[in-house]
TrEMBL record:
It comes from Alteraurantiacibacter aquimixticola. It comes from the Bacteria. This is Tetratricopeptide repeat protein. InterPro entries: TPR-like_helical_dom_sf.
Amino acid sequence: MRTGLSEAGKVTLSDAPFEGVDFGPLPPQVHALLQEGVRAHRHDNAAADACFRAALEQDPAALPAYLCLYKIHTYGGRLAEARAAALAGLAEACRQAGWPADWRDWPPLSGSAEGPGRFALYTLKALAFIALKDGRERDARAMLERLAELDPQGLVGWQVIGELAAGASA
């Protein structure tokens, strides 16, 4: 049984087999490890973590592996591990995009970011969420302010975290 979303946005259950997650173009062995980790994460976080880390050992440039790591650790409340994975993914995305490592120094975007740049923005949003959950509201706000400058249309969905931050201070 697997879950999904209906067109109305409601959670649905299905007996259809797990078809995997589209992580984009990756080496086959990395893709297989990520799929194995996704299947494992609901019942064995340690196995999922091992799969995602093995994927990174195979290909340290595989941005989806960082995403998987920081998501499972964030969902599991292991915020220090989530933050470490997100920071590592952010560094790799910046390297691939040719951006400075420090998000405060990122150049203004011309149009919407794609590829590693979009991943960097998305991961900065994740870091803002992690900071908020970890009680570092000032850090979260600084990241969100920078995201508002870089992504004024909110293409990576940072506004949702901004609303959570506003609620946290109210």
